[in-house]
Fold EAL domain-containing protein.
Amino acid sequence: YADLAMYQAKAEGRNTLRFYSSDLERTSANNISLEADILRAVSQEQFVLHYQPKVDLETGSIVGAEALLRWNRPGFGITSPNIFIDIAEETGLINEIGAWVLNEACTQAAAWQNLGCGPLQIAVNLSPVQFFRQDIVQLVAEALRATGLRPECLELELTEGSLLKDVERTRLTLQKLKQLGVKIAIDDFGVGYSSLSYLKNFAVDTLKIDRSFIFNLADGTRDEAIVRAIISLAESLGLKVVAEGVETDLQLGCLLNHPCDEAQGYLFSRPVPAEKFSALMIERPQYLLPKQRMQLRKA
Ligand code: C2E
Ligand code: MG
Ligand code: MG
Ligand code: MG
């Protein structure tokens, strides 16, 4: 019986091991096919950018757009960056994708400007992998040169985590980017490995309040206290402040009690393809904020 028990344990062990390894194989096979698909996606032009308006909270006008990457993956449909950015970063493919994003977004923004859409700031997300590449400054300079987009109309969004990876290098790169005239925003502000000292040392222009603080935003909440503090920090430092993930009138109403410069979220519009964004600007160049709605009702 002892032999039998040992035999069973071994067999189970083997089975378990085999099961485990085939599971592993399956995930890595998935990743490999995802990787291969991403590689193809670049050359087969399966990537597209969607644009989400940024709204000025003083006037209700669209003053900018964030370019958000979408992958039209054959057999899967429109795929969100959350599914593939990590792998693209691990494999380095993000560099190629990111360069495409930068050029595409600048080309589109320049086209909107030439159509007389007024000054529109385009925001592009940069991955830390891309940011720490030797030639990011040349890449940005070249995108501006090739498209003729005014540098101040390009804003690069970076997360707190990526800024703190290599503080000295970050400081230098940001300085060079600033010399080109582009704007720098800190994305998802407040949830990173926050160290406020970088606000002192780095040349940034904009703070984007992370949408987790906006989600339950209402008068008198802890989230409101945090949002108020971020806005007043930005104000004292002379930075622009943008709230992301605004979905409801309640959240907007609360934001409007504070001097928050801009907002972005489903309340105004989801990210949309370029043609739809053009239509949006033509049809509804500005949103009615609660205050203006009230004035309209009175009149
Ligand atoms: P992010 O830069 O913080 O972008 C904001 C995300 O919030 C977008 O998700 C947007 O669709 C979503 N969003 C906007 N308004 C609302 C709202 O009212 N409610 C909710 N629940 N969500 C809202 P998306 O497009 O899936 O992008 C996810 C993340 O992927 C981005 O977060 C960014 O970190 C990354 N990403 C997107 N495009 C690029 C890109 O071109 N390059 C790189 N490196 N990263 C990108
Ligand atoms: Mg962003
Ligand atoms: Mg964000
Ligand atoms: Mg985010």
